[in-house]
Amino acid sequence: MRVTQNMMYRSSANALQDKYGKMHEIQEATLSGRRLNKPSDDPSSAFRDIVFSSNLSQVKSMQRTMDMASERLTMAETHIDIIHEKLVDAETLAVKFANSTVNGDPEVMTAASREALTMYEEAFKYATESLDGIPLFGGGRTKTPFDVNNPTIGSILKRPQEPFGSDLSAQTDMSMQANSLSTTGTGYPGVPASVRVTYNATAGDYTVNVNGTDTGTVTPANNELDMGWVKMDIANTPTDQDAFYFEVFPDYQGGTADRAIKIGDGRQLPGNVTGEELIEGLEPRGRNINIFEELSGLRGAMLRADSDEVAARIDGLQEGRAQASDMQVITGIRTAQVESIQTTLGYDQATLETAKAKNGEVDLFAMISKLEQTNQALQVMTISERTVLDNSILDFIR
Q: Where are the domains of the chain?
């Protein structure tokens, strides 16, 4: 094959251009600090960089989820602590006034009832708190877990031959049962309301006491006791002076399941306990104690200046306190789980960021060495190109 001067020139020029291109790539990598400025620089490393970036994005997304979950759990833990403290205070108050010498002193007992009401209001406040518009204890629903406009009637307790008896407990004969409740009915007292209904055998009627105030007598008709805002079914005729007690308080209207924390790949962790568990004592986590009901009952007993009735509330308050304590433990464990995952995700993020950086980082000493080699090659090729060009000119002159 005959090699002409023109062929030698084109070959030298192409090689020189290639070296200039490599020098540009080396300079770009040196200035940017990255070895991979486009996929073609190293397809295999570029693919790894995409994988690292994708995994890093997932980890950061999970971290944001865990941060929000941690904030909700921490806030819930604080609120449950406060509710627990209020129940401790309520139990202490009940013990103080149970069978005390101030029994029947309306002034002292009324003052104590205001303390009980404050405890109820604090418990209600912290049980209905929200974070970013989502209730802490509303379960999977965004609806407020407890609403004063959505009341319910608690268990109906019976006290034989009141005021002579002191046994206030659940009915065994089921003499009286709740029929219906209307917030727009005549005389509706709002929540919380503590009601005592005492049977008068002589007149065949019932004396109604709401929050320590006698509101009148009601005569049943067709085995139904209509008090204007609440109706009760009378199954059996009580003994003279038998008394029935019930509380009216907000009913739970949140979700039955907790708001789970999704951590990817279909996996999830339990979120906050629900108001149904914390306040209403839904089993198995709860103890079947309604905290609102117990606090309302304590207030009612104080307003009626009845220390025996106060004493009958102690067991329920103790169980309510224990129930809140159980929720503290459950929430503490869940918070620890989330914090553990947060720590692991922090390690994962650091590992991925390091791997990604090393995969795409330029080796400065290697780049300097390549730059020097390329520079020397350019010098040699430039001299060679000039020689070829000079020979081409001489051939032309000849």
A: 5-56+357-397, 70-145+255-356, 150-252
Assign 364 a pLDDT band (cuts: 50, 70, 90).
very low
Instruction: Name the pLDDT band for 161 (thresholds 50, 70, 90).
Output: confident
Coil, helix or strand at residue 1: coil
pLDDT at 75 over 90: yes
User: Which of 26, 39, 14, 63 has its CA nearest to residue 360?
Assistant: 39
Task: Mark residue 181 as left, alpha or beta (left: phi above 0; alpha: psi -120 to 50; beta: remaining).
Answer: beta
For the record, the structure tokens of 214 come out as 């006698």
The verdict on domain 70-145+255-356 having CATH code 1.20.1330.10 is: yes
Question: Helices in 267-313 by DSSP H: which ranges?
Answer: 275-278, 291-303, 307-312
Residue 361: what residue type?
E
CB atoms within 10 A of CB 83: 26
Torsion angle in degrees (nearest 10) through CA of 82, 87, 90, 91: -140
pLDDT (tens digit per residue) in 19-54 = 555 555 655 555 455 555 555 555 666 666 677 678
